[in-house]
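Researcher: If only I could read backbone structure tokens as easily as an amino acid sequence. Walk me, if you will, through where the backbone shape changes along the chain. I have put the entry right below:
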Amino acid sequence: MKTIGVLTSGGDAPGMNAAIRAVVRTAIENNMHVLGIKNGYEGLMKGDVVEMNLRSVSNIINRGGTILHSARSEGFKTEAGQEKAAEMCKALGIEGLVIIGGDGSFRGAQDLSKRGIVCVGIPGTIDNDIACTDNTIGYDTATNTVMEMVDKVRDTTESHSRCSVIEVMGRDAGYIALYSGIAVGATIILVPEIPYDMEKDVIDVMKRTVATGKRHFVIILAEGCGDAPEMAKEIQEKTGIETRATILGHVQRGGSPTVRDRVLASRMGNYAARVLRYDDRSCIVAEHAGTIVDYPIDKALSMTKQLDIDVYRTAHEISI
């Protein structure tokens, strides 16, 4: 390939810039021309591109967010939008695309592939919910951010002998809740993959823990499991323990990426650019047992991923 494009799509994740940097520098090192596409698929349909060079990606490896910006595109979901995007690739001379994003972004890559545009996906999402990869770019940073924020909340929770219900991101996936919950020593962790009973799994556990002498509690609630303020109100009514709700929100998406995310993003970006240079095929890049591999898009999107039940069991056995 002579010319490739790179875009970021969907929710931003720390480490996306590191992936962009690796794609651009690897491509240029291998005699390819790189166009950065702004605002995801929406920008692609409009031809909103900028020429990338070695210096345009300097000093971005440490930055959160994405220098190419991201946007969700309703227009691209239509047949007409996908045709327009494919035609724009051809008009701009883009022979292959690197798409950094999550499941929805990869479904867009699948649609473009069917229209003759070679696409390579890089998993970038804080939820870690891409089935084909052990870890996604941004997940490690997000869990570390949650850990740091909850550690701060715990200080005031302990000082006032309160219960804190802390809501973290994870509408359909509980990875952030589970792993950050273990890291902060949460009393209770609630994830969308595992149904819970409010009386048995929350109220009774708190009462049993009070009997051991504990006077403060941290509950980590994935957003897909319920509403933190409502849960806090119910806990206070049923236990008599002063309870406060904290919703961490979009702070979890931001911040400088961790070492793990910077290295993972760099390895995946390098791999993606080399696929387009030497193999010329559509696929999703993934990490498996510490090795960077790839899967055909159709196969990657058909795979499923399950929360590690043994980790969940461990969390609950050491929480009391």
